[in-house]
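Worked Example 4.2. Consider the chain below.
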Amino acid sequence: MKFVALLSGGKDSLYALAKALEMGHELVCVANLYSASEEDSYMFQTVGTTLVPAIAKSLGTNIVTRRLIGKSINKESAYIPTENDEIEDLFKLIQEAKYRYPQIDSVVSGAVLSDYQRARVENICSRLGLSSIAPLWRMDQRELLIKMVEEGFDSILIKISSMGLGKEHLGQRIADLISYFDGLKKKYGFNMCGEGGEYESLILDAPIMKYKIVIESSEVVTDKSPDYSPYGHLQITGLSLLNKETGEKEPYCVEAISYPKLFRNIEEFYTPELDVAAFGMPHGSIEHEAFLILKGLEEILEIHGFSMKEIYYVVVFIKDMRNFAAFNAVYSKFFNFPNPPSRVLCEYANQSCQVKLMVKGTKDAKKCTWVQSISPWAVANIGPYSQSYKVNSCLHMAGVIPLVPSTMQIATDQVSQTFKNCEAVAEINGFKLEESEMCVVYYAGEKPDIDERYNPFWVKPTGIPRNCALELEFHLQKDMPAFTAQETELEGYEFKATIKRREIKEFTYFYWYLTIENDENTEGLIEALKEELDSYFSEVRSKSPSVAEQLLGAEPISVKIEDYIADLRIFSTHPNDYKSGWLLNVPCAFIDSETNGILIYGSDPLQLATYHFINNS
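Applying the procedure from the previous section yields the following structure tokens:
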């Protein structure tokens, strides 16, 4: 069988891998749940997990990793899927391994006597159609430790959590502790392999490893627990890999796993553009890139206490519209629930990646329009998205194309049909298109004639779904204070642009469109834009905290205009020239397009909600 091995960094998991190879099975990759900090888990080793990539390199195999986010919630012996349980992290990890390496048909784990661990691995295998292989199951623990030592599996103690173990044991070799463990077993019922959480180990060498792990520096970390129940771990601060063939040492750095920033404003969240490069991953097929981006997004949200179900809007930038179906196939796996987010998608053939996207979400109440049936009413969904989402007093509409609803064929008069489709969605939600705060007009071919009352912002992508000539992205807002509208010229050394401004000064709320005539000096342009934003912000009368700590009084209130920017998109033939300065501290996308312009939307969600509560009560 072709297997993925669950590798914790400890002795049991690597020995199980070796035994699976002896049984004639084929290793495809190893998989590991890593912890951001030392934590207790009923199921997983957590201290040595950051060193697993070094072990994978020593084995000469691929590795799939995922951050351990969940907790030990379901502690019953028979496991059933439980939201936010750490076992669901393991499910997603193995699911990703199976996605990356479809040839995988089994999972190898190091369970010895723990029915708790074995049953959970079997549950996941059953859900994914895989076989569970447990080469060490029901082996005598003392004999198992002796076999490991005799066969050259060298490991040390890196965590203690049991009576009879002290900080002096951290870093000692398991081979030297077997007799001592015998005494602890007689005295306390000690689990000699550590399956009860008594200790954790780190493998340093084994016959199947091409490199030996050499610890160059470490620190003993203990807490103030009582002597009868000591607790501590060994923090590895430096290591190298000894090439067993040449005898030469190679320095090894534990790579820090980082994520793109998630921008938050109380209960709202926004991302910058997300592509594989943002997660430190290489480019690949559309399916490969889409999976890595969406998996990374899912992890970012979980880390910050959000979920994919709280996303209400997604903007997708795809390189080749011919890959639309392949992208949708992956996308739908991450949004396979009722009322998926609204979405707009266009092709930008000159971008370097296959796909990138940005999202908006909220924990606040929201209302969804999600109709999949073909009818005369409006265009049925042609993908895993909803027609619209109403959040507070704003209606966010998915990108709308000129299909005749009853036939789902492209209309002869594409402009008229697109507006009819938009009006149908707006009206069912109690809105009018004349209440448009933002209308992004995506057009292929000649620029269509769109009334200025809709506040159009023009974008020319290289392709629109179904090869249409037009797609409209409407965001409607009603019951608002009066807007002021004006134009501002930005001009300086090698830059010139015009800002079309619509803004409120009672609280932060604005839509600005920049039409760029000259941007040879991109740095000068974005700094001039920042000065205009700061000037506007200085005139705003009411400003709410943008983080919960300030709202609750735990931190002094300190806000700036960047805290309220929810959407910033730069369209340019050289978008990478803009990637600097304050633009990296806001949810921004840099889109390779023949359009030269910038779209900015900013909002104070708390002030906006307060205004509507007061005026509608």
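The chain has a mean pLDDT of 91. Residues 296 and 367 are 26 Å apart (CA to CA). Compare this with Example 4.1 before moving on.
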